[in-house]
Amino acid sequence: MPASYDYDTKYEPPAPTIPVGLSRSGETSASQEIVALVDTGADATMLPVDVLKSAKTRYVQQRLMRGVMGEPTTVNLYLAAIHVAGHVIHGIRAIAGPEGSEAIIGRDVLNQLEITLNGPAHEVWIA
Q1: How are beta strands 17-24 and 32-38 bridged, if at all?
Q2: Is 105:18 a contact under the CB 8 Å cutoff?
Q3: Does the model's pTM come out above 0.90?
Q4: Which of 36, 44, 78, 112 would disulfide-bridge 52, Cβ 3.0–4.6 Å?
Q5: What is the C-alpha to C-alpha distance for residues 119 and 102, in angstroms, rounded to an integer?
Q6: Cα–Cα distance between 55 and 52 in angstroms, integer?
Q7: Residue 110 three-state SS
Q8: Domains of the chain
Q9: What is the pLDDT along the chain (127 residues), one digit of tens a residue?
Q10: Dihedral angle sign, alpha carbons of residues 18, 21, 27, 29
Q11: C-beta separation of 20 from 37 below 8 A
Q12: 20-59: string of b/e by CB count within 10 Å (b at 16+)?
C-alpha cells in the first residue's frame, strides 16, 4: 500500500519531506528517525553527522564533491541503511552534514523507490 506524506509548509514554496529511519547498513530496523527534504536535484543523500553517529553508521572515507556552486569540497561519507515507507535501502554512502543541519534525501535513494511528487496537492506518494 502506498504511503502518503504532506509537503512541509514551513518552506516557501511548500516542499516535499518524508520521515526516514537510519541504521547501520545491513541492519533491518532503524535506530534513528529524522524528517528529510526530498531533493531530486541532489546526487547524494546528506544527513547531519550527529544523527549518523547516533545510528552507529560506519565512517567510510573522505571524498571530494562539487556543491551547487561548482566548487569542490571535501566531505565525509558514512555507510548507512535508509528506511522509508516500508523499504530498506542498504549501502547508501551518506554525506555527513553539520550537526543539526537539514537532512536531504538525494537520487542515490530516490532512484530506488517508486515516488510521486504531487505538487498541486502538496503530497508525496511512495509505493
Answers
A1: antiparallel
A2: yes
A3: yes
A4: 78
A5: 21
A6: 5
A7: helix
A8: 3-126 (2.40.70.10)
A9: 689 999 999 999 999 999 999 999 988 899 999 999 999 999 999 999 999 999 999 999 999 988 778 889 999 999 999 999 999 999 999 999 999 999 999 999 999 999 999 999 999 999 9
A10: negative
A11: no
A12: bbbbebebeebbbebebbbbeebebbbbbbebbeebebee
Q: Specify whether the CB–CB gap between 126 and 109 falls below 8 A.
A: no
Instruction: Look up residue 38 and give its three cell numbers.
Output: 526530498
- C-beta separation of 114 from 65 below 8 A: no
Sole residue written with cell 558514512: 78
| HSE toward the beta carbon, residue 53, CA cutoff 13 A | 9
**Which residues face 64 on adjacent strands?**
74
Q: Which residue has the cell 561548482?
A: 70
Q: CA 93 to CA 45: how far, in whole Å?
A: 8
Q: How many CA atoms lie within 13 A of 65 on its CB side?
A: 18
For the record, the C-alpha cell of 103 comes out as 537532512
- The residue type found at 63 is R
